[in-house]
């Protein structure tokens, strides 16, 4: 598919599926340039068949045990630039972004690996407001 010649897509079937990628964040596998290129290839394919792509985005990746606090609004590294390029790429192909949670983690857990809310954690308004 020639990336410079996109036209408005049309559905090729009567049935359509939505693909949702969970826990997309500038950390771990999503900082690898090869993985980001593969992700863009999937986005291209989905766009070509008229199927929407949704990502559940985590803006800030933290990994306290390894001292990682990657805020893409403050760290202008090449890997973060490639990640942001991929997010923009998705948007230009009718992708949708939903906010998964600013860090999507609890305490000293790694982003996207722990549980933020359950019967023991952040289970009342006072605790939730305290985090904000």
Low-confidence stretches: none
SSE order, as H and E? EHEEEHEH
Helical percent range?
25-40%
Count of separate DSSP helical elements:
3
Write structural notes for this entry:
- This protein has 132 residues and is an alpha/beta fold.
- The chain has one domain (19-131).
- Helix content is 29%, strand content 19%.
- It has helices at 33-48, 78-92, 125-131, and strands at 19-25, 53-58, 60-63, 68-71, 96-99.
- The longest helix has 16 residues, at 33-48.
- The chain is globular, with a radius of gyration of 17 Å.
Describe the SSE topology.
Elements: E1 19-25, H1 33-48, E2 53-58, E3 60-63, E4 68-71, H2 78-92, E5 96-99, H3 125-131
Summarize the entry for a quick read:
By secondary structure, the protein is α/β, with parallel strands linked by helices.
Describe this protein with a few key phrases.
29% helix, 132 residues, two-stranded antiparallel sheet, alpha/beta
